Amino acid sequence: MTTTLGIAAIAIWIGFEIGIRRPGAASSLRGTEPDRASTPLLVAAYLLATALPLALARTGIGSIGDAAWIGVGVAGLGLLVRGWAMRTLGASYTRNLRTAPGQQLVTRGPYRWVRHPGYAGSLAVWIGATLAFHNWIAALIVAAVMGLAYGWRIRSEEELLAEHFGDAYRAYAAHTARLVPHVF
């Protein structure tokens, strides 16, 4: 049952990604210069994060049994945070990194507490969904791969935002955590 819920969490995450983004450039998988290849890197990480737990689930290696329900909860929380972040950004929400003339720095909603709540939510979805597949080894590998991919994405995005918003972004970044309030 939890394996099915892990698949459902990933399917809902994909639904968010397809359904909430504006069509056109905002939903393109084609990278831009500021993107620094982070979009294709994330797509590769998603493919690994989907295939690995399915492959390991059949072996029984790294099984966590009933504790997989923790993963379902983590994935559900991640979906809520991701959805909230996407809705808060509205028209500024895009797949690849870009800014637009007249774009405003968003510091409301979940952005009051962290600079990248959408990425925090996605990390929780993918790690939680992997745990829901009953496998701690896959979850550990997925956490590492996603952490590296999102780390690259965050560095790229913060350079873009600092260039676009200047001192306003630097001041915001100085008092707002990246992913976890009051921690990191």
Q: What this model shows, in words?
A:
The chain has 184 residues and is mainly alpha-helical. It has a single domain, classed as Four Helix Bundle (Hemerythrin (Met), subunit A). It contains six helices and no strands. The chain starts with a helix and ends in a 9-residue tail after the last helix. The mean pLDDT is 86.
| CATH architecture heading | Up-down Bundle
Strand content: under 5%
CATH class descriptor name: Mainly Alpha
Overall 3D shape: elongated
Model regions low in confidence, pLDDT < 50 over at least 5 residues: none
Q: How would you describe this structure in keywords?
A:
184 residues, Four Helix Bundle (Hemerythrin (Met), subunit A), single chain
Which secondary structure elements does this structure contain, and how are they paired or packed?
Layout: H1 2-19, H2 38-57, H3 68-89, H4 117-132, H5 136-165, H6 167-175
Helix pairs in contact: 1-3, 1-4, 2-5, 3-4, 4-5, 5-6
